[in-house]
Amino acid sequence: xxxxxxxxxxxxxxxxxxxxxxxxxxxxxxxxxxxxxxxxxxxxxxxxxxxxxxxxxxxxxxxxxxxxxxxxxxxxxxxxxxxxxxxxxxxxxxxxxxxxxxxxxxxxxxxxxxxxxxxxxxxxxxxxxxxxxxxxxxxxxxxxxxxxxxxxxxxxxxxxxxxxxxxxxxxxxxxxxxxxxxxxxxxxxxxxxxxxxxxxxxxxxxxxxxxxxxxxxxxxxxxxxxxxxxxxxxxxxxxxxxxxxxxxxxxxxxxxxxxxxxxxxxxxxxxxxxxxxxxxxxxxxxxxxxxxxxxxxxxxxxxxxxxxxxxxxxxxxxxx
Length: 320
Prior knowledge:
Layout lengths: L3 E11 L3 E11 L3 E6 L5 H8 L7 E6 L2 E2 L5 H7 E4 L11 H6 L14 H14 L14 H14 L4 E5 L7 H18 L2 E5 L3 H7 L2 E6 L2 E5 L1 H7 L2 H5 L4 E4 L4 E4 L5 E7 L3 H12 L2 E3 L4 E6 L2 E4 L2 E4 L1 H8 L4
Helix pairs in contact: 4-5, 10-11
């Protein structure tokens, strides 16, 4: 039986006036909740309200059956850990020392770590897979490594509830996938509950057990594919020149199609990149166009060739 950990009831959040109203949600222990929406929709305001950094207009937030508006800062720090998109200033201390700061809600700054706390730190470094970095200085790490350190620090805080606000916004694509893979693994292995706000909607839908979508002052929560379908998320995020390609599962620029080609290919990397070069340069793949054939590492255009990919690219550029 699922054990609920977070209840949000009729919540209204904002500043001088409400930005998002009618927020109702139930989150179970061990869930990974994705939070998405356009800029200015109220995602960050909702997170600040959950963290107690922004007063709410109305409604209630119950964590572990306790209304969080009654909590002081010390209580919040023992119940909710947070990972932001990046540190404003990276301290010149070791990774181990930075991770150990997660124990501050339970101890005095000057007291020495006891055995149980050291074990928590060691376990967190192992869970995140950064034990080999423990003696490195934090200000010498890459952005991806530093974000993993901050996740380990949140684990050391030993809360059941972790909020992440755009944890991959400044990372390259490889580290974005690493961080989401890590969060997914931690949610499964630790039974901790995660709320992750991100613009990486594809990664949220792939990894989240529940999706929160904030749009035009309204809040929607449910099964990721259900919310994506009912709220037409990809259509709402599309623009005149940027559309979501359902076949490829990603957003793509929509280039004006100027010429049709009939593409006949084998299954190869060259075939993929030839098609990519054609589409990027305004060619429409069609059964009615001029013939482009790719076979055995060579390209033939209108029966002429063979061409290398560079030669083919130089050939099609004037036809745009």
